[in-house]
């Protein structure tokens, strides 16, 4: 019976087009068309996004209670840039189901803090279309 193994010293190169990207502090495998090809089965909490959402609602509460009259006062008290505080406060405009998804670690892998605060829509339906 002939052997199916080759004793040849030839090598075979296999090229698999993929990329490894960082999302929320974790590395994931992404295919060439940008689709995530592998994801952890457990929720993927993006701690940066989570902290920002929690901070935004805390700051909103402080402003609504009158502890600070303006965003500038709040930023000064927190020793942060006014622009940063304003951007993060926009996260309070997120649809409730998107906030819940962030809290549970079920947010879409493309939902990251910087693009989110720069392009947030006030309309919840448009938000869902953009991020889900």
Plain-language structure description:
It is a single chain. By secondary structure, the chain is mainly alpha-helical. It has a domain at 43-131. It is 43% helix and 8% strand. It has helices at 47-64, 71-78, 82-89, 96-104, 113-118, 124-131; strands at 19-23, 26-30. It has a two-stranded antiparallel ribbon. Strand 1 (19-23) and strand 2 (26-30) form a beta hairpin. Helix 2 packs across helix 3 (82-89). It is elongated and about 80 Å long. The N and C termini lie far apart (57 Å). 12% of the residues are buried. The mean pLDDT is 85.
SSE order and pairing:
Layout: E1 19-23, E2 26-30, H1 47-64, H2 71-78, H3 82-89, H4 96-104, H5 113-118, H6 124-131
Helix pairs in contact: 2-3
Distance N to C terminus: 57 Å
Unreliable residue stretches: none
Mean pLDDT: 85
Strand order of the largest sheet: 1-2
Please state the CA-atom Rg, rounded to the nearest Å. 22 Å
Task: Summarize, please.
The protein is mainly alpha-helical.
Features:
single chain, 132 residues, mainly alpha, two-stranded antiparallel ribbon, 6 helices, 2 strands, elongated
């Amino acid at each position: 019976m002939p052997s199916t193994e080759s004793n040849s010293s030839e090598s075979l190169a296999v090229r698999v087009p993929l990329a490894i990207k960082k999302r929320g502090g974790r590395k994931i495998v992404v295919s060439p068309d940008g689709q995530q090809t592998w994801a952890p089965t457990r929720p993927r909490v993006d701690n940066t996004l989570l902290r920002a959402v929690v901070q935004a609602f805390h700051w909103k509460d402080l402003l609504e209670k009158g502890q600070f009259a303006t965003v500038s006062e709040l930023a000064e008290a927190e020793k942060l840039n006014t622009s940063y505080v304003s951007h993060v406060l926009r996260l309070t405009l997120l649809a409730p189901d998107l906030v819940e998804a962030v809290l549970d670690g079920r947010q879409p892998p493309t939902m990251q803090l910087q693009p989110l605060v720069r392009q947030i829509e006030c309309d919840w339906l448009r938000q869902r279309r953009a991020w889900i």
